[in-house]
Amino acid sequence: MPEMGCKLSGLLILLMFWCIADCKDLTLQSVVGDVVADNFTYFTLGYDGPISLILDSLEGDADLYISQFLLHPSYNTSEYCLHSATCGQDRVDIPSSFQRPIGVGVYGHVLHPSTTFQLTVVLRDEFGQMQEGFETLLDSDYLEMKRVGGTGNSGYRIPQSEEQSVFSSMLWTFLEILLEVLFA
């Protein structure tokens, strides 16, 4: 039985180190919106630093187009710098060297009459130290929402539950695993 305790504490230590090592990024903002088929919904991104944009298609299929030169990028190759067009989660890593503001276009795939999406802005901590002053980023609204094309109300909303940082979600996951192991 003492061997089980050593294995359990070793596992808990490994989980703790994994949690700490994986909690370098910071979720800055998350927006839920809608886009109709064959149209774009545009955002202007003003956050500094290395940013990741994560697009989850909650219903339908949306694609992500990014430009440092145009505020309204499209799927024409001359009008975007980065893009992700998958059937699942779309992710684009924007380097800190990109000029701000950055144009972000969310395109609703033509096969779906309407697409509901969630766009999450993550500040990547590439060197193990968060940029100074990131607290001010959290207090500001750096992601402006604009709708171009389509009809009806877009219904943008920032889900309160999604505004937590990666660190806090990893901490909760770690605590849940710990409680499950201890009381199972």
UniProtKB/TrEMBL annotation:
KW Electron transport (keyword) present: no
Superkingdom of origin organism: Eukaryota
Compartments reported by the entry: Secreted
Alphabetical UniProt keywords: Glycoprotein, Secreted, Signal
GO cellular component: extracellular region
Annotated InterPro entries: UPF0669
Keyword field contains Endoplasmic reticulum: no
Family of this protein: Belongs to the UPF0669 family.
Record protein name field: UPF0669 protein
Naturally occurring in which organism (per UniProt): Daphnia magna
